[in-house]
Amino acid sequence: MGISSSHTENGIIEITIDYPPVNAVPVRGWFELAEAVTGAGRDPRARVVVLRAGNRGFCAGVDLKEIQRSPGFEALIGANRGCAKAFAAVYDCEVPVVVAVHGFCLGGGVGLVGNSDIVVASDDATFGLPEVDRGALGAATHLARLVPQHLMRTLFYTARTVSAHTLHHHGSVYEVVPRERLDDAAREIAGDVARKDPAVIRAAKEAINGIDPQRVHQSYRFEQGFTFELNLTGVPDHARQAFLDGNHARQANDG
Questions:
Q1: Which neighbouring-strand residues pair with 140?
Q2: CB contact at 8 A, 12 and 48
Q3: Please, what's the largest Cα pairwise distance for the chain?
Q4: How many helices (H) and strands (E) does the chain have?
Q5: Measured between alpha carbons, how far is 147 from 156 in angstroms, rounded to an integer?
Q6: Low-confidence residues in the chain, pLDDT < 70
Q7: What is the span of the domain harbouring residue 26?
Q8: 3-class DSSP state of 97
Q9: 11 touches 49 (CB < 8 A)
Q10: pLDDT value for 255
């Protein structure tokens, strides 16, 4: 359980997120993910990184239980900084990052996907930011890289989700495949990248980031400032607890 990495002979490094059951990532996990992605990019053998996940969905965002049971703002600040580190690591990785998304991709998951280079998704994948319902802000920066401006605003204000097919229509998801084909599809496109000259690909990654019109690091940290400001009011604490209580009630009914 946690963040793991594996190497293949053709220069592909696979990094897996594994926090059962829904991949709600704790503070430490975000920092470990950042270290894994950064380390993979610096590995001279690496030509491309595949970011994938186990369990029921790609990522449910931050671990709200950890934040709720931690006194003061220590866990909140840790989650803010950890997410910023992980998202930045994906964006700044010295080689392209292919992300394979299944099930739900929420909150911090959108941050990872929005900063990646190539997105492959299963046909059951959905994407969304429930932040407003949790009394928080953040990752609109990254959602704006996946959908047009007005759709981003609608999704952000309403906390609704969109399907992988919708993102494929807008061009941000490269391919939508059946769930059982997801890993193979991600490895296939990663293999195409890995067969290119590694020096050229590394230069291409740096060049593309250099012409990016959106300053993702700065804009995301700007958003996070409002999250912390809202937490000073106490409103998000009640919103998070209501969500956790609702989940607990649903699980009890399902049992």
A1: none
A2: yes
A3: 55
A4: 11, 11
A5: 11
A6: 247-255
A7: 2-180+208-254
A8: strand
A9: no
A10: 54
| Domains: count for the chain | 1
| Nearest to 53, CA basis, from 82, 12, 96, 24 | 24
Question: Which single residue is written with the structure tokens 């609608």?
Answer: 154
Whole-prediction pTM value? 0.94
Would you say residue 32 lies in a domain?
yes
Identify the DSSP state of 51: E
Token duo for residue 64: 């709200």
Q: Considering the domain boundaries, does residue 51 fall inside one?
A: yes
Q: What is the dihedral of CA 193, 126, 122, 150, to 10 degrees?
A: -50
Q: Look up residue 167 and give its two tokens.
A: 């993102």
CATH of the domain at 6: 3.90.226.10
Tokens of 92: 């700044």
Q: Is the peptide bond before 21 cis (omega within 30 degrees of 0)?
A: yes
Distance of CA 210 to the CA centre of its chain: 21
**13-71 pLDDT, tens per residue?**
999 999 999 999 999 999 999 999 999 999 999 999 999 999 999 999 999 999 888 88
Of all helices (H) and strands (E), which one includes residue 112?
A: helix 108-114
Q: Is residue 190 part of a domain?
A: no
Specify if 156 maps to a domain. Answer: yes
